[in-house]
Amino acid sequence: MNSRITIGLLFFLSFTFTYGQVQDANSPLAPEQNRKPENYQLSKYKYSLEELKNNFSEEMMQRSNKQYEKVQETNNKGKWKPTAESIDAHQAPDWFKDAKFGMFIDWGLWSVAGWAPKKDKGAMYPDWYEFRLDTDSAFAKYHEKNWGKDFKRDDFIPLFTAREYDPEKLVKIAVDAGMKYVVPFSKHHGGFCLWPSSFTQRNASDMGPQKDLIKPIVESCKKQGLKFGFYFSVEEWEYPLLDKDGKIKTRLWATKNAPSREELEKKASGKIPVKDFAKDYIVPQAVEFIDKYDPDLIWYDGEWETDANDLRTYEISSYFYNQAEGRKEVAVNDRYGTKDGKRLRFVRGDFFTSEYHSLNDENKKSTHAWEECRGISQSFGYNWQDTEENVITAKAFIDMLVDIVAKGGNLLLIVNLDGQGALPKTQGNRLLDIGKWLKVNGEGIYATRSYEQQAEDSVSYTQSKDGQYVYAIIKEWPGTELYLKGVNPAKGSKIRMLGNDLSFEWTNISGGISIKIPDKLQDIRNRPCEYAWILKIKLTNF
Fold it and tell me: Cβ distance 438 to 394 under 8 Å?
């Protein structure tokens, strides 16, 4: 090849696969943001939707039919049936209740832009950027300024190269943080799969990185002894369907405004048109993932406007339960869809999923396995604007974990990888903070259950699974003496602080106990950790 051409090609590729970064002119010290690279060439996928239909639809629907027949056969023979009654009979396994802390990896095409309007309070959703660049004026204005009016959703795909993605390192970080399970966003609402799905060409093997991004993280989890979860959106913003005459029509979700055919080409590239969205696509694709990667849990999402029977989530779950029966214990969350127009969240599922503290029913928290999912900051998805100033402090982080565990829940913490798969430093710092604390205090967190009195003043409680010990988690240093109500230690038993060998003197008082805090611990340098100190107390009823 001519050397001048070679140099020119390398120069072009360096722009094509590298972000352009700019500073906000009004804030010269702001974090760097991403924009369209200079000289970036917009392009279309190698197949149009019509070509995908002509070349792949019939063959895919034949395979889908065989896959669906397998699901029906398995469920007919198996213990677990695709009915509400059977699904409700399944319970969250002990490993899930014991785990307490997991990693939720929010990463996909939206991470390339990595933006949502900043808020003083409330959650921000950068992982809806692809959708909202056409539907929300704030997103549209930002997008046009930084990426250009002609830059459409699927133009992000070639920039999603995953060049900084290191799954082994990521799992190691999860282990160091004290996490027990990992749930990556395997397929979000745009339909882009991080594994080489044979039921779509819109995946990381055929597009973008051109490699399987799920297999190495599954293998790393197995090596490190972590459970692995399958996050799977059962809805997509748009999907090309075949009408009775074999022509392509658009199935919509979350919007009533159908895109033009030209617009759909840049929103659904790689999606193979089928007749039945759930039967021909959602169910076979989910089962393909289950068979290929053998996850320990399913985390449904995107279900809130569609009937569960239309999504066929009962069929997926019962297949998942049946293929695991007698081999290992698995779990499914509560995002099945709707029934009679009402969401089944907090109603059906092995565990309920609270999102940024949306589950307010304390009775459900105390009687059913549940999980809180939220980020280190307000952002659900990578947001270049996040700094140390708007991520929660290490103390607030640990206090939050303690409160969740005391109420019987798990914390599935969102980590937001940037567009190329790197973990932002601010998030990594917080994970190390909580990992350091859990190394000292894990006994009072892992494999515990709610105590009859969950909290009082600045103290939260957990208890051991066998009920022999209660753990009093002190969120504010008490000084020289601590009063606890509703705790009656075994006569003559010793009270100790986790991470410390000192024995604490205590006496019974009306309605509780008084504990003397040793003088040595009044010096913060002698305490086992910086905050949230845990006392282990033997109960009288054993």
Answer: no
Long-range contacts formed by 141-150: CB under 8 A, 24+ apart: 142/115, 142/117, 143/113, 146/22, 146/33, 146/34, 146/35, 146/36, 146/113, 146/115, 147/35, 147/36, 147/113, 148/36, 150/42
Q: Are 356 and 322 in contact (CB under 8 A)?
A: no
Is residue 128 a contact partner of residue 386, using CB atoms and an 8 Å limit? no
Task: Please say whether the beta carbons of 301 and 380 come within 8 A.
Answer: no
All structural domains of the chain with their residue ranges: 64-444, 448-538
Quick check: do 64-444 and 448-538 share a fold? no
Are 252 and 224 in contact by the 8 Å Cβ rule? The answer is no
Does domain 448-538 fall into CATH 2.60.40.1180? yes
Q: Which helix (H) or strand (E) holds 277?
A: helix 277-277
CATH code, residues 64-444: 3.20.20.80
Q: For residue 370, which amino acid is it?
A: W
The string of pLDDT tens digits covering residues 292-339 is 999 999 999 999 999 999 999 999 999 999 999 999 999 999 999 999
Q: What average pLDDT is seen over the chain?
A: 92
Bridge partners of 20, per DSSP, are: 35
Q: 485-537, pLDDT tens digit by residue?
A: 989 899 889 999 999 999 999 999 988 999 999 999 999 999 999 999 999 99
Pairing mode, strands 370-375 and 409-416: parallel
Phi and psi, residue 196, nearest 5°? -75, 70
